[in-house]
Structure formats: C-alpha cells, structure tokens
Design brief:
The protein is an alpha+beta fold. The protein folds into three domains: about 220 residues, Jelly Rolls; about 80 residues, Immunoglobulin-like (Sandwich), CATH 2.60.40.790; about 240 residues, Jelly Rolls (Sandwich), CATH 2.60.120. About 15% of the residues lie in helices and about 30% in strands. The protein has eight helices and 33 strands. The strands form six sheets. Strands 1, 2, 3, 4, 5, 7, 10, 12 and 13 form a nine-stranded antiparallel sheet that branches. Strands 21, 22, 23, 24, 25, 27, 30, 32 and 33 form a nine-stranded antiparallel sheet that branches. It has a four-stranded antiparallel sheet with strand order 6-11-8-9, with no helix packed on it. A hairpin with a 3-residue loop joins strand 16 and strand 17. The longest helix has 19 residues. Pfam families: 2OG-FeII_Oxy_3. InterPro entries: HIF_prolyl_hydroxylases, Oxoglu/Fe-dep_dioxygenase_dom, Pro_4_hyd_alph, Pro_4_hyd_alph_FE2OG_OXY. It comes from Symbiodinium pilosum. Its cofactor is L-ascorbate.
C-alpha cells in the first residue's frame, strides 16, 4: 500500500522524553516558519510554499549530537532505533537498499489555530532540494489527542489526488512511513491544537546534486555507498566464532557506564545499528543481532555513542540517572501479572549488563576447571536433529553440563547478586495483591530456596527432552514449586537454537508451544508442579544459564523425617 503505521514505536518513557526535548527546543525559539527543506526559505519559483495558509508550521533542522541538540539524548535514541528498523526492512523491501544516507531531523510544530500544510508530495522529482528523498519517516508526539483536535495526515491515491486513501491521527508515539515520491500525495489537515512531530527523510544520493539537502550517514550496514558501488564487506552477523569476532567490556565512571565493543581484523566494516529499549541495548548488522546486553543499573536509555572506523571500536556511554534502584517493584508487578494469567513470565534485563557478564564468566570458568558434570542420559558426540530443529526420537533425554553451588561462597559474588535479586522478587510476589489461583497458593507455602544450578549446553546440538520439573506425587514429587532460569548468552541469535519451549500438555506435538529465546540477562519463571511441561531445543552454540528452584519446605520435611541429612547441601534457607 506504500505506507505503514507503527504505534508504540518507543517505550512510554522514551516517547515522553522526546516530546519534552522537542517542546524545550520550541520554547527556546529555535523553530522558524516552514520553508521547503532544511530551513531554507523558498525561491520565487517555489513561492507557493511561502503562504502561511499553505504551510503554517514552524520547523528546525537538527543533528542529534549534543552540540546541535543540547536538549537531551532522546532524539538520538529515536534516530538509532529508526535506523535499525530501516536497516532490517532492507532484506524484505529491496527498494530500501537504495538508501545511502538520511536528512537531518526536521522538528516541527503546528501551533494550532488552523495551521495546515496543503496537498503535496515530499519529492516531486524536480527540485534539487528534495529529489533525493526516497522514504519519509515521522513520529508524532501529541499526548491526549482527541477527535476534533485536527492535524491529521491525509493520504491520497497516486492516480487520483482527490481520492482519499487514509487519514492518520497524530497520536503520541505513532510512527508513519511512506514513499516520498509521486506515490504518496498527502496533506496535513488544519490543526486546532499544538501539534509536534519529528520527520526524517531517507535519501538515495545516487541522484545527489550540489544543492541537495544536507545529509548525514545512516547508522546501518549500507550507509556509505549505493549497492552497485559498494565493495564486498565482511558480515559481522555471519561470523561463526563470536568469541574471536566481537569483544566487549564495561567500565564504571562517576557520571556514566561505558560500554566498549571491539571488532577485530583489518578489513573495513560499517558501524552496526543500535536498537535500544528500557532494558537492553542490541547491536544489529545485516538485519541480525550480533550483541545483546542488559542495560547497567541506574542508567537512562539515551546514550552517547562514538564509532571509530580506524580502530573498529564502538564506544557507548550510558548516563547515570543519579537514582539508586531500591526495589524490583515494577519487575515483580509485571511478573505477577504474567504468572497469574498464564503460569509463567519473562523479565528482560533482570540482571544488569556488567553483573550478567561477570556471572557468565564465572560459569564458564567453573566449566574450564572441570567442575561441571555431564547431565543424565547423555552420550558422547553431537545430537542428531530432525529437519524442524527438534531432537530425533533416539536422541538423549538430557546432555547438558551442570553443577549445584553455594551462592554464599566467597568465590561467587555474581551468584550472590543473582540470588539476592531472585529472593527479593519472590518476597514481592509473596506479599502482592495480584489475583490468580497459582499466586494465592504460592503465598500459603513455606518456600525454601535451592542452591543455584549452573549449566552449559554444549553447542553440538545438546538438548533436554520434554519433561516437568515436578509432579504432584510418586517418584517425581521432589517438592519443587517454582522454577527461575536466568540466561547468559550475549551473542545469541536465532540460528543458535537452545530456546526453551513451553507446552500446554506433555503430549502436545510442539506446534502450539511458546519458544523463549535465551537472551543475556533474561529471567523466566514458571510454576512447575504438574504445570508447564517444557523442553530445551537443540543448541548449536554453547548456551549458558543459571537455574534456581523454590521448594515446598513443609512437604519436603515430611518426606525426610528420620533422614534429615537428605536435605543437606540442597537448600540455602527459607
């Protein structure tokens, strides 16, 4: 259809910060009466644009760097996320591969009182100042918009400019993408209230002229040259030995956390795109994730980034908010809602990036020291997989490497932090008011926390067949009530496998299951007493995780009367 509407493109906090920055820019008097492009007033040849009845907005053109945009870092965060989206779309929309750069961001305000922009196209193919435009991308920043406020964008048919195709209300956090040329005639309807937006044009500079609008490179793998002229570049996303390809480290500074990512080798490589959320930072190249990390604790999601092509180093600084997180209340509320509705839940960024990296290193160090033992029912060599990626029926039940450990030991500070956070989460769940039979029953149980289990699934197709973590009676009645698993895989991507598949019934064929990706710092929790049968799908890259089970203490004590020694070394406390 030539256009696309995306709601809730940013998180609520990111959208709010961006609107505040735009409003501050407007209040500072940095916006001027709308011209044709980049703030240049139209010439006599373009006089039709100068009439305020034709175009009644005020605009400004800005880079996202701090020198030109001192209002905050939300604009940079938005542009980074938009660049990631466009880069990923290039694999399915071939025309977008023509994009070589982007315009500056046009910040616009329609002040109300009927301000509008009459029917036009963003690239009429004639004017040098706009003929490089390929794709228009804009985000609306208008909280509380209601019908009657006006300011809608009306899109018309290309073959009949009087035929309305769609009217798009300018509601907050809505992104609109459309072709900039003759295919998308449009207009801004009269706005009766203040209307803010930020517009970006993605450019095809193979049509560039000396008068073309000022542009800056896209943060994407195709930023520098058109596809026909681009020299073959190494694909970071295709590297198989990630340990030797990408190195990263955190460092703590008084005002910020700094992440440094090093790409080895000598061949030229473009800067990867950044994808930011409230909990994670992801580096993307060729449409695939090459690194995904939880954000450090107490930082904002609007970082500063610097790419050194010569050193092949990306440096990202996450400003500290000045606030020390004192509880996991938002996380616990989210988890409680998920547990109540479906019996399991996921929290991304549960363990902050530096701590997650430290814990992963600890697990791998214990493995290197030979302290992990092979799981039951395992065998030598790789597991044969079927065409759909599942384990063949004659494969092993379980063949990970694991060990239980005491998180209070002096040599395991990262385990102590994980245990502390898990127990804090459980404490919040136990005193919460959320409804649900599972949660109500959980709050009546005297829980005991088991020792953490560190596990590595070797990347040779190792898996764990379909099973329950606990059953109500019989041999499998081990007293487990709740399972918590933290994943520690910063380089995970889809073809690495190792997802946790949660099923409704043990006899399910798997097609109705839900696959949970083992992303770095992600926590999954699920009730395990006759609930949530699951399996670990074949892992084709080493998969690291730490699991903590919570037990029904009273039930276990009843089972172990006269043999209390059976509990020794299993639990750490209530």
């Amino acid at each position: 259809q030539g256009y696309c509407v995306l709601d809730n493109f940013l998180t609520d906090g990111q959208a709010r910060d961006l609107r505040n920055e735009v409003a501050e820019c407007h209040k500072a008097g940095r916006l001027e009466a709308g011209g044709l492009v980049n703030g240049k007033l139209p010439s006599a040849d373009d006089a039709k644009y100068a009439d305020r009845a034709t175009r009644g907005d005020v605009i400004g053109w800005f880079d996202s760097g701090q020198e030109e945009w001192p209002h905050g870092r939300a604009l940079e965060g938005y542009l980074l996320k938009l660049g990631t989206l466009v880069s990923e779309l290039q694999t399915t929309v071939p025309e977008l591969a023509k994009i070589t750069s982007r315009s500056k961001a046009m910040v616009a305000c329609y002040p109300g009182g009927g301000a509008r922009y009459i029917k036009h196209v963003d690239n009429d193919g004639k004017h040098a100042l706009c003929k490089t435009r390929l794709l228009t991308a804009l985000i609306y920043l208008n909280d509380g918009w209601e019908e009657g406020d006006g300011g809608e964008l009306a899109i018309f048919r290309a073959d009949d400019e009087n035929a309305l195709r769609r009217t798009v209300p300018p509601v907050a956090n809505r992104v609109l993408l459309f072709w900039s040329d003759w295919r998308t005639p449009h207009e801004v309807r009269p706005s009766e209230k203040m209307r803010y937006s930020v517009t970006l044009w993605l450019l095809d500079n193979t049509k560039k002229s000396p008068e073309a609008e000022v542009a800056e490179p896209m943060a994407s793998p195709t930023a520098d040259q058109p596809p026909a002229a681009r020299d073959p570049q190494p694909s970071l996303a295709e590297d198989t030995n990630r340990k030797e390809s990408v190195q990263h480290e955190w460092s703590s500074q008084p005002e910020y956390w700094e992440l440094k990512v090093q790409f080895p080798g000598s061949d030229a490589v473009d800067c990867p795109a950044l994808d930011l959320s409230d909990t994670q930072v992801r580096l993307v190249a060729a449409g695939e994730s090459i690194l995904c990390l939880p954000l450090p604790s107490g930082t904002s999601g609007c970082p500063l980034s610097k790419w050194s092509k010569k050193k092949r180093t990306l440096t990202i600084q996450f400003p500290r908010t000045g606030e020390v997180p004192v509880s996991l209340s938002p996380m616990s509320s989210s988890m409680a809602e998920q547990l109540a509705s479906q019996g399991w839940g996921v929290i991304d960024g549960f363990l902050p990036g530096p701590e997650a990296d430290e814990l992963r290193s600890h697990v791998l160090q214990q493995r290197a020291l030979g302290k992990l033992q092979t799981g039951k029912n395992s065998h030598e060599g790789p597991v044969r997989s079927t065409q759909d990626g599942s384990v063949a029926k004659d494969g092993p039940m379980k063949n990970d490497e694991y060990t239980f450990c005491d998180s209070e030991g002096g040599d395991a500070p990262p385990l102590r932090e994980l245990t502390r956070r898990c127990n804090q989460l459980l404490a919040k769940l136990m005193v919460g008011q959320e409804a649900g039979s599972n949660l109500a029953e959980l709050r009546t149980i005297n829980l005991l926390q088991g020792h953490p289990m560190m596990a590595v699934y070797p990347g040779n197709g190792s898996a764990y067949g379909r099973h329950l973590d606990s059953t109500a009676g019989g041999r499998g009645a081990n007293g487990r009530v709740l399972t918590l698993v933290l994943y520690l895989n910063p380089f995970w991507r889809q073809d690495h496998g190792g997802c946790l598949r949660i099923l409704k019934q043990l006899a399910d064929d798997g097609t109705a299951g839900t696959d949970v990706e083992p992303l770095h710092g992600r926590l999954i929790a699920f009730f395990c007493q006759d609930q949530n049968p699951h399996e670990v799908l074949p892992a084709w890259r080493d998969r690291v995780a730490v699991t903590i089970w919570y037990y029904d203490g009273d039930r276990l004590k009843e089972r172990c009367v006269g043999n209390e020694a059976a509990l020794t070394g299993v639990f750490e406390g209530g």
